[in-house]
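To fix ideas at the outset, we first show an illustrative case, written as a sequence plus integers encoding its fold:
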Amino acid sequence: MLFVFILFVNFAFSQDQEATIYFNDGTAIEGFGSIKKNKVYFRASLDDKADNWSYDMVKGITFVGFEFTVKYEYVTLDEFSKPDPQLLEVVEEGNVILYARIRESFMGASFNSSGFNIQSNRITTNNVVSYRSGRENVTTELYVKRANEKFPTSLNGSFYKKAEKYFSDCEVLAKKIDKGVFSKDNILEIVQFYNDICSD
């Protein structure tokens, strides 16, 4: 008989944080919020019951109370695979916006009745983790988008090929990516380089 022991670690936005919620009509309210399963949970004060909001009413939410603010927006990834907008972290803004979706992962150990570990599997939770947290054991999805583009471009899988093609209008940056000077771990620097050096 197998028993699976999994340690769930709550992090970042699993508890209410000071936040500002932004509605599609341009209004904003300060209070306390959290994110769960692509929905924003928000209340004006800790004494209130949290209401949940989705993309049909809300543009995004910004969390404060950290060493830096953490901003999330609803983004339509494409018109086919995920028609509903997804909450993505806005990591960098400029002519090219860098979005990230980070989920915490950990190893789930399985034991037999004798207590011996017989297998380990990586489990991805719905816990939302900020890109800026620097946490290990996370799954990372990265997207970039220019203001005139309807959908963001995924940089997931074949990173070098996709990134070099996306930033091909900046020859010096494309060469750095091609030569491995910039890797996926340097995506923030890549976008900042583009916005500072290559943008009109």
User: Anything to note?
Assistant: The helical segments are 159-166, 171-178, 187-198.
